[in-house]
Amino acid sequence: MNETANDNFQYISQLMGVLASESRSNRQETDKIELLLKRVAKQSSISYEKLGEEVTSETLDNYEKLSIPTKMDTLINENYDLLYQIEQQRFVNNKISILIQSIMEHFVSIKNFIKEQKFMREQDLDNFIYENFESQAVILNSHIDILREKKDISGKNLSRIIAQLESMFKNIDWSLISKDKHEFKLLLSQIQNLDESFNIKLLSKEDITVAKTYCK
């Protein structure tokens, strides 16, 4: 949740920067208009204060008629709204892409851990875990490749990747894990860190209870 709040703050900060820039630009234009009015007053021998007096209702009515947006003005405003929505979507897509990449880095870290411990475990168990992780890595990598080729990063695709991770851990038989206290605790810590980082549940409470019995 803190990461989401930080992202929102960054986005609002960017908008504030744009608004500040527009405000400065409008102020500069106002100063230019004021300078021009003073020049007109001087050349017309009319005081600047008199030029600033209230205008008649007829003049105001004419001004309001001129202020009614034309079809072109409406189209331009709609285009600006569309550009704003596009930039907002780009911002969201970029954050989703970073999140997916982070998940993959955690996954690769776990996979590399298993490879490094391959010769410290029983051969059958090692092959079992290695093959399960490796096959899931291929599936997840294929999802990432599809997302990058189609440039269609979305919450639905992200949920699918997380579901693949959850399914993978549900199929692990913890009773086959070698009772190597240090190495197994390291693996369990990696999984729990992944759970906490992305607010997902790769292991059920029952799995965690069973797994921890092999750390004693």
Describe this structure in words.
With 216 residues, this protein is an all-alpha fold. The protein has helices at 2-43, 48-51, 57-67, 71-116, 123-150, 155-170, 181-198, 205-213. α4 (71-116) packs antiparallel against α5 (123-150), α4 (71-116) runs antiparallel to α7 (181-198) and α5 runs antiparallel to α6. The chain is rod-shaped, with a radius of gyration of 31 Å. It starts with a helix and ends with a helix. The model has no long low-confidence stretch (mean pLDDT 70).
Number of strands: 0
- For this structure, the quaternary state is single chain
Give me the Rg, rounded: 31 Å
Q: Give, in order, the helices and strands.
A: HHHHHHHH
Largest sheet: none
Q: Structural class, from helix and strand content? A: mainly alpha
**Overall geometric form:** rod-shaped
Low-confidence stretches: none
- Average the pLDDT over all residues and give the rounded result: 70
